[in-house]
Structures are given as structure tokens and as C-alpha cells.
């Protein structure tokens, strides 16, 4: 375990300031891109319905009644 910690520390210490800056800039860019998609993902996930595979036909007719007027994704 000491060897792993020592090698990890050596590698982290070898990262230059410019490399850290590039990594941080990339992380910020990706986070902003995700934030832009977050609302769309939330909207879709709220309408996402999981089919449990129930074979009960009465469940299917109830589902159809509940979905009347709904548009399939």
C-alpha cells in the first residue's frame, strides 16, 4: 500500500500548473453543458413510464384509459 501511495503522490506532484488549469477548465465547460441539458432531462424523466411486464389484461386497459390524451414518446 505504501508503494501505491508513493507512486500516486509522485504522479500528482508531477502535474504542472498548466495541466491542472486545462483539467479544471474542461470540467467547468462540461458542467455548464450538463446544466443546459439538465432541464430537458428532468422534463423527459418526469414523463418516463416503466413497463413492469405485467400480464394482467385489466392493468393494460386501465393504463390505456389513464394514458388517453397522452402522446407516446
From TrEMBL:
Origin organism lineage: Eukaryota, Metazoa, Ecdysozoa, Arthropoda, Hexapoda
Biased composition (Acidic residues): 56-73
Name of the molecule in the record: (apollo) hypothetical protein
Organism: Parnassius apollo (Apollo butterfly)
Annotated segments matching region Disordered: 50-73
Amino acid at each position: 500500500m505504501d508503494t501505491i501511495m508513493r507512486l500516486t503522490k509522485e504522479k500528482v506532484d508531477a502535474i504542472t500548473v498548466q495541466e491542472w488549469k486545462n483539467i479544471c477548465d474542461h470540467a467547468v465547460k462540461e458542467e455548464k453543458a450538463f446544466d443546459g441539458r439538465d432541464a430537458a432531462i428532468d422534463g423527459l424523466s418526469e414523463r418516463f413510464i416503466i413497463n413492469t411486464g405485467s400480464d394482467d389484461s385489466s392493468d393494460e386497459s386501465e393504463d390505456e384509459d389513464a394514458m388517453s390524451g397522452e402522446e407516446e414518446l
